[in-house]
Amino acid sequence: MLTAATAARAALLAIAAIPLVAGCASEERTACDDPGTTYAQVIYFESADGSWDETTVFLVCTPDRTVGIVDENAQDYTSLEDFQINNELFEEGDQMIVTEDFPAIDAEAEFKTVPARIDDPAVMWWTIGGAAAAVIAAGLLVWLWLRKRRKAIREGEEQAEALRAERDRSEAHGADEEDAPGRSAGRGAASEPSADRDADPTAESDAVERGARAPRDDA
């Protein structure tokens, strides 16, 4: 709970923090009319366990006529989103009730319930981008591995085909060498009649002549 001493301390810190808040950049700054004016605003919040409590923040109209937020810890913020991302008052799952145009200084505004803590969108996108990069890198590694594996398989098949061809050539050569003696023998056998035919013709003439000189029985 906020005590009077804490509120006074926070108010003094809020005034001292005006130059710091004025120097902060934000895409969504809320305008105000009276630089240096500080307002205290009670924020009711529901914890994740269902219990309710309250805290006080200070809305400071800075010299550049934009509203800054200072919490009980004297931490300053430039917008509702900045407060939701960076405050150390709440935890994930806590809900708080703020005005529709918070941190605008408007006592008649409607109220709404918003998360008291949110993740930084920039960090979230970096996380998503990192996860996507990791997935892409993993996919690339798998693709490279598959490509290398397919190449190894293809080279293995080519080597196996070359070995089969070499084996077939060796078997064919061996068969030719086994058939060579048989073909030589066949050629030798076929040449023998030719040798008989090529016998000496002189011997045949002598035999004929001897037969002619032999006495005939009839004589």
Question: What's this, in brief?
Answer:
The protein is an alpha+beta fold. 53% of the residues lie in helices and 16% in strands. It folds into 2 domains: 4-118, no CATH class; 119-176.
Structure description:
This protein has a 6-stranded antiparallel beta sheet. It folds into 2 domains: 4-118, no CATH class; 119-176. Helices cover 53% and strands 16% of the residues. Mean pLDDT is 74; it is low at 12-26. The chain has helices at 4-16, 18-22, 80-86, 121-197, 201-213, and strands at 38-46, 52-61, 67-70, 76-77, 95-99, 111-115. The protein contains 5 helices and 6 strands. With 219 residues, it is α+β, with helices and mostly antiparallel strands.
List keywords for this structure.
rod-shaped, single chain, 2 domains, 219 residues
